[in-house]
Sequence to fold (242 residues):
Amino acid sequence: MGASRLGFYDVPNVECRHCGETSLHRVTAFGKYFSLSIVPMFPTGVTMTAECEHCNKTIPQHEFPPALNQQYKPNKARLKRPWWHYAGVAAIAIFWIFGLVSNAIDSLDPRSEMLKNDIAQMRRTPLESDTLATKLSTMYMVATIGDQLDEADFNYLVKVKGDNALMLVSIPTLDDYDEESREQMMEVMEMVADQQFDLLTKNMYYGLRSSNKNLVVKTPTNYIVDDNIANSYLYDFYGAKE
Fold:
């Protein structure tokens, strides 16, 4: 929780409950907000204090006499909340809108369906003819990364298209691994590709996925480790957008 000053207004001729004098009282309003760490998320209310001009005593809101309470509504319009009281809600809304826009853009790109089709063709047990995926499967079986990997749940796809090569690995429990472990898993993919003579001159596109999203992507121009990476980073494998 947090609070910041919204403003003030003066109320004349109010009897002070401390000194007994009838004098001007300055009412100061504070806007309260809920915060995560130091980031304000959303407003939660307003609290006020009043100060007697004569004795300088501060009066909390629950001790306001009727003369002070009655002046709140007429002066409410002067008490403006700063925009940053809504910073958390605004950030969430921006990310949500960005996600909608990104998905809309993806849906307009024909390469989106190409990648979805390739992801759908990922296999738990590589075909005998798919020697590169078989090597990849073998490497993960012997790799020791974080907790013991359950290679039996992995899905693989390796595809070559002209000067480009796509290597996808799906690990259902990948969300449970930290960033360092995910990078080590990507290194295994690169190690296998580097040992494949016919891939040495290819533009490599790597996607390391959980069951439904990319968590590590590496292309000739990008290397990203994040909690949800857009599929569009892999689209150039299929060539330029038509």
In short: The domain at 110-238 is CATH 3.30.300 (GMP Synthetase; Chain A, domain 3).
